[in-house]
Specification:
about 180 residues, alpha+beta, Alpha-Beta Plaits, SH3 type barrels, 2 domains, five-stranded antiparallel sheet, about 40% strand
């Protein structure tokens, strides 16, 4: 039984596909929110019609003998905003933002967010990874994650593919069979 229904995590739906690829006056910012305000700021941005991305994953646990599920932020405290200077200022009026981080390489961030979105949509069980260090860079050759690029990790004897958002030094990893991977030079 879900506590709350799934809320929009991407507005508009074409943000990572078409909208952010076309030249315009908008730019990417990373909103670092006050504690536990990620969904609230995304609802505010949706009501203001300001483009944003909040990576959410379904989390299930048992409470008092009942199975409970909720959609929680993959990276607590972070929301990605794609807007104009006026929209950035408008987001500050919500009083839910601790600080706004500027993006030096928006193309790299967009690439990272697209890969992360694809990983979330695959519904594979994810593990959040923080303070990442470089490893072997690989690409998935076959299967539902074909074409994804990331870093190989080994956790408890299992091979995992790490997809990272370099700007915030966080990422998510998924278990993958090593025969599906090919090295990238």
């Amino acid at each position: 039984m879900p506590i709350l229904g799934e809320e929009p995590s991407l507005y508009p739906a074409t943000l990572l596909d078409e909208m952010a690829s076309q030249p315009c006056e908008r730019q990417w910012w990373v909103l670092y929110t006050r504690a536990r305000q990620e969904k609230a700021i995304s609802r505010d941005l949706l009501s203001f019609e300001i483009p944003f991305y909040l990576p959410l994953v379904k989390k299930t646990w048992v409470s008092r003998g009942r199975k409970v599920s909720s959609h929680t932020p993959l990276f607590p405290g972070y929301v990605f905003l794609f807007g104009t200077d006026q929209e950035r200022v408008r987001s500050l009026t919500t009083n839910r933002i601790s600080r706004i981080l500027t993006i030096d390489d928006p193309a790299c961030l967009l690439h990272d967010l697209r890969q992360l979105r694809r990983l979330i949509v695959s519904k594979a069980p994810l593990t959040v990874e923080s303070r990442l260090v470089p490893g072997n860079h690989v690409r998935v050759r076959h299967g539902p994650l074909a074409g994804l690029e990331g870093t190989v990790l080994t956790r408890r004897g299992e091979t995992r593919l790490l997809v990272r958002v370099n700007f915030i030094q966080k990422g998510a990893s998924v278990e993958v069979d090593d025969f599906l991977l090919e090295p990238i030079d």
